[in-house]
Predict the 3D structure of the following.
Amino acid sequence: MPAAVPLPSNRDAAIAELVDLSASMAEEGRALIERVLPADPAEYRQWEHYPEGDAIDPDTKARWFYHAHPPEERSEGEHGHFHLFLPLGAFDGLEPLAGPAKEGAAKVVHIAALCFDTDGLPTHWIATNQWVTEEYLQPAHAVIDRLDLADMSQAGEEKGIDHVGRWLTLALFACRADIEALLTDRDAALALTGPRDREAEILAQRPFAL
């Protein structure tokens, strides 16, 4: 496994690398989502995690997976979305606001999800309620304080998926102000409902903008 590439020093550097990486993938003729999904579209299954077992960075344990809901449960023009997580271990000593209802759930804390349209382009960030991902829900300020740990640069490489983890990491860092606002909005919405309220699925959203 090659050594991890250092993270960009600032937002402008993150955007510049993100643009360069996007151009490089385009030149290869394999867009971001195409690197994740089965080569045969007929093999693609709604709800399934891609890749199977998620993509986990070997150093930070931050992770991502991609999936799609049935058409009637998607936003107009949406194909699917990437869910991004920090490991629960990054929150040692901090009691979660709510935990998974099912046994064997992954020990993760959700950061956000990034939605993509049917053309394979990112459209907006969303923050979901706790029951959606069965995460260990942590308050916004705690997640924000640990965003520097959300390096997924090598996540997916061990499963033959190149560039995706780095692209998602760069997107997260480039959009950090929006992610912080998204999480703050999530907590404000959560205060009016509850983590297990099935009527409250998406608590906040922000456009993907560089």
Q: What stands out?
A: The helical segments are 11-28, 130-133, 140-145, 164-174, 176-190. The mean pLDDT is 93. The two ends are 31 Å apart (CA to CA).
